[in-house]
Amino acid sequence: MSTPGNGISITHALEPHDWSNEETAAYEAAIEAVNGAVGAYSARIAAEEAKPHPDPAVIQEARAAQTRLAREREALCSSDRKQIAEARQHYAQLAREVRDGAA
After folding, report:
1. Range of the domain at 78
2. Residue 8 lies in a domain
3. Which of 7-16, 32-41, 42-51, 93-102 is the least confident region?
4. Which residues have CB under 8 Å from 48's CB, separation 6+?
5. Is 36 helix (H, G, I), strand (E, B) or coil?
6. Which of 7, 17, 75, 98 has the fewest CB atoms nearer than 10 Å to its CB?
7. How many domains is the chain partitioned into structurally?
């Protein structure tokens, strides 16, 4: 599983673990929540770049957020149920806030 455009695999860092179907689904959902936030920032960048006079600071901040999110995605511990549950909630909320212009 690698992220589009940056070639970073998130599976290389996974420790050996017997996964239940529930744990697998939760981890995948956490990854998708992070990816949703990255995508929201991509939409923000595209919208800014489409303006007649784009604000470079907005674009730079959104790209920095994407880089930070990639690091945070890699830091997810597949066997840490609490972290995964919190990540799912946090990143889904972040994606909504970015899309709504609140983050």
Report:
1. 22-100
2. no
3. 7-16
4. 54, 55, 58, 59, 62
5. helix
6. 7
7. 1
